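=== Structural record ===
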Amino acid sequence: MDFLISKVYAYIASNGTMSSISSSGGGGSSSTSFDTLFANINNEIITPIIYLLFALAMIYFLWGVFVFIKNADSAEKRADGYQHMIWGIVGIFIMASAKGIINLILSSIGL
């Protein structure tokens, strides 16, 4: 919530007033506002979620490695650890792909 307050203060400092926040402005400012909004949503919401899910996939993978090594004598438990490792790698791949696709889209539209 603090980042929203700091953004409002920065907007007020740059424009001198808060009355123009709700207005769309002239011809080109609507496009600029959309670009800024899209970039802020990407930077403040989407990117942290992708990094969080990437970290969770990495932890899941490492947990699978731990289970696999800890239960070296039990074939059933090793298979369970192996499945954790496989799905951890799949999760890491999906998060890296999602970040790459988002960056590709952003660079394609010029953001």
Summary: The radius of gyration is 22 Å. Residues 31-108 form one domain. The longest helix spans residues 29-70.
